[in-house]
Amino acid sequence: MEIKKNPKADLNRDSGLFFVIGLTIVLFLVWRALEMKTYDKEEISLDIVEMVDDIKEDAPITETIKTPPPPPPPSAPEVIEIVEDAAEIEETIISSTETSQDAIIEEVVEVDDVEVEEEEEEISVPFAIIEEVPIFPGCEGLKTNDERKVCFQQKMQEHIKKNFKYPEISIEMGIQGRVIVLFAIDSKGDIVGVRPRGPDKLLENEAVRIVNALPRMIPGRQRGKAVKVPYSIPITFKML
């Protein structure tokens, strides 16, 4: 049996390609149809606008107030006359009723000289080198200066032991220490210039109280003249 068709002429071989091409063309036409827009034809009229360069506005009319001009300055005289002082002016002297300063000075000079007594500075001689030490009450019968020194110191210790009183607050707080009291026996035998140096204010106050209770003494002498004698004494506060 003879074959009537050419085996190379197979139409189904490229059918897929043709189908894709045809589908693409159809989709393109559909897309263009959807994107196509139609416009209604209308008549457009263009108005001509005239541009004006300057816009003139009517400014309000205001009335100007006229002020009178200032008066002209006075004219200078043509000729200046120089008048000489012919008449003498009498000087008026005002006399004061108060006494002048010169008169006061003269009156002061005329007063008799006033005698002013110059206060002599009190001489201070240390206790260790003074010729005659201050005499503590009870040491008057001693003759030599060394005996009076020893008696003075003994009486001083007895006075401290007799008048010593430990501050109660210092005992409660456990405060103790040594207070050095500086003072002087002036030319009249009085105790002056008491100054304490210690570790606590309460102890210092008690030491000052003891020294201020010292009796009045016979002042010390240097070359037969009463002088001030500085002295210092330690007072120890110790709890047993």
Could you please describe the fold and organization of this structure?
The chain crosses the membrane at residues 16-34. This protein has helices at residues 15-35, 101-110, 145-163, 168-173, 201-212, and strands spanning 177-185, 191-197, 221-222, 225-226, 229-237. It is α+β, with helices and mostly antiparallel strands and 240 residues long. Strands 2-1-5 form a 3-stranded antiparallel β-sheet, with helices on one face. The longest helix has 21 residues, at 15-35. It is elongated, with a radius of gyration of 67 Å.
Separation of the first and last Cα atoms = 158 Å
The low-confidence parts are 41-57, 85-111
What's the rounded overall pLDDT mean? Answer: 75
CATH fold assignment of the domain at 145-237: Fusion Protein Consisting Of Minor Coat Protein, Glycine Rich Linker, Tola, And A His Tag, Chain: A, Domain 2
Structural class: alpha+beta
H/E element sequence: HHHHEEHEEE
Which percent range fits the helix content? Answer: 25-40%
Global morphology: elongated
Beta content comes to 5-15%
The tally of beta strands, per DSSP, is: 5
User: Biggest sheet, open or closed, and with what strands and sense?
Assistant: 3 strands, antiparallel
Computed Rg: 67 Å
CATH uppermost class of the domain at 145-237: Alpha Beta
Q: Going across the biggest sheet, name each strand in turn.
A: 2-1-5
DSSP summary: helix tally: 5
CATH architect. name of the domain at 145-237: 2-Layer Sandwich
